[in-house]
Amino acid sequence: MEIAILLFDAITALDAVGPYEVLWRVPGARVQWVAKSPGVIRTESGFGMYADRSLGEVQSPEILVVPGGIGARTAMRDPAILDWVKSAHTTSQWTTSVCTGALILGAAGLLTGLKATTHWSDHHLLCEFGAEPVHSRVVRQGKVITGAGVSAGIDMALELARLLSSEVVAQAIQLSIEYDPQPPFDTGSVHKAPPEVISLVREAVRRAQSRQGAA
Amino acid sequence: MEIAILLFDAITALDAVGPYEVLWRVPGARVQWVAKSPGVIRTESGFGMYADRSLGEVQSPEILVVPGGIGARTAMRDPAILDWVKSAHTTSQWTTSVCTGALILGAAGLLTGLKATTHWSDHHLLCEFGAEPVHSRVVRQGKVITGAGVSAGIDMALELARLLSSEVVAQAIQLSIEYDPQPPFDTGSVHKAPPEVISLVREAVRRAQSRQGAA
Fold it and tell me: Which of A66, A125, A126, A194 has the greatest number of C-beta atoms within 10 Å?
């Protein structure tokens, strides 16, 4: 079972590595890290993640994972990436996204008429692609599964692991990665965080977007 | 503020990327990915993570993050890695580990007489280093912070972010990565998972360890 994880410049590392850490443990899984050009891809904060395969080398993965990040705004306008995503989706068993990876699915026309989720700060953009934003951590619509921001990819992938194998296998994967989360604060959702915390994040997102726009 | 994340062969990707995704967002943070030799390091499942710096290039980081993985059993016997960890610890502000990264801290002599945690399947090994295993997700003893298995690095790093900046900044980072976890199962802790799930994981760990031993 071939699982393709898309890499692109200025990706968010955890968007990709969260699902990866779950999905490579599914029996029979073979993960391919895919980018326009194989080699080192730099995340939005400079960490180097290695893509072993070009888009052309992985044409019909059973599972497609599209992470997000500040760079998703560029990737969603890249015809080579959109063509690959569209094409992979025609034969995929599951097409998934994490965070603003949903914008790439949307730009590829895969979310039209579907409920979907993304990072809370970008929910309004889903409407531009004919999708209906839903404030859920994981949204499954037919064979398309979208996850909310960054860390939600872990929850999304555990649900996908269940669909790909069995409940007991997915439970064992959750135990393998000791995923018994105990966040120190209750501010992980925009519906729970206080206004000053939300403002800090919106400001950081604006700064990151304008840095990315300038670059 | 220099943050060094150690990479070594057969690391667990999420052990490193979980804390990374939190810590690079701390104001003033500069993350260095460090390995014996700079270049692509392969995780226990083959993913390539890029180390930009050699051990000798990052000698006095304020924050030290030592991830784990199947390869920790080799890294904990590597004099070059142990010497670097020991030396960095003499000047660090915080010395931290995730998962079996604690075994590397232990082998470097940094856990003697301390309470510590690691992946649940390896808790007994902490005793060999004079540490007292504690079944907590995050254990702080002086300037040493150990996190439990794999995903616990996110919780550990959020606590560290609070110590490095402020509660409101750490809360904003938690919201940035939308860390409002909703695991599909309640099997992420060995104290909650049913016996058949625990057996499956113990068997997978045994297989991985013997593959690593053979390689």
Answer: A66
**What would the DSSP string read from start to end of B128-168?**
GGT-EE---SEEEETTEEEE-STTHHHHHHHHHHHHHS-HH
**What CATH number does residue A161 fall under?**
3.40.50.880
Model confidence pLDDT, tens digit, residues A155-186: 999 999 999 999 999 999 999 999 999 999 99
Quick check: B209 pLDDT over 90? no
- Considering CB atoms only, which of B21, B181, B193 is closest to A13? B21
B154/B171 same-domain check: yes
Same-domain status, A22 and A116: yes
Chain B from 154 to 193: CB within 8 A of any A CB: 154-155, 158-159, 162, 167-172, 174-185, 187-190, 192-193
Nearest chain B residue to A29, by CA: B45
Closest residue of chain B to A190, computed from CA coordinates: B175
- All residues at 6 or more sequence positions from B72 whose CB lies less than 8 Å from its CB, including other chains: B8, B11, B99, B100, B101, B103, B104
Mark whether B106 and B194 lie in a shared domain: no
Across all residues in chain A, what is the average pLDDT? 96
The residue among B165, B63, B169, B149 whose CA lies nearest residue A185 is B169
Q: Is A49 on the interface with B (CB under 8 A)?
A: yes
Say if residue B211's pLDDT is above 90. Answer: no
B136: closest chain A residue by CA: A182
Contact A114, A49 (CB under 8 A): no
**Which residue from A14, A180, A183 is facing B189, i.e. has the nearest CB?**
A180
Judgement on whether residues B154 and B188 belong to the same structural domain of the protein: no
Q: Indicate whether B173 and B215 sit together in one domain.
A: no
Q: Which pTM was predicted?
A: 0.97
The verdict on A13 and A43 lying in the same domain is: yes
A32 and A85 belong to one structural domain: yes
**Of B3, B6, B79, B81, whose CA–CA distance to B41 is shortest?**
B6
Average pLDDT over residues A94-100: 98
Q: Does A52 touch chain B (CB under 8 A)?
A: yes
Judged by CB atoms closer than 8 Å, whether chains meet at A155 and B193 is answered as: no
Residue B70: CB atoms within 10 A of its CB come to: 21
Percent share of chain B, pLDDT over 70 = 100
Q: What tokens appear for A163 in the block?
A: 């669909």
Q: Which domain holds residue B133?
A: 2-181
Quickly count: other Cβ atoms within 10 Å of residue A13's Cβ: 27
Same domain? For B117 and B212 the reply is no
Whether residue A99 lies in the annotated active site: yes
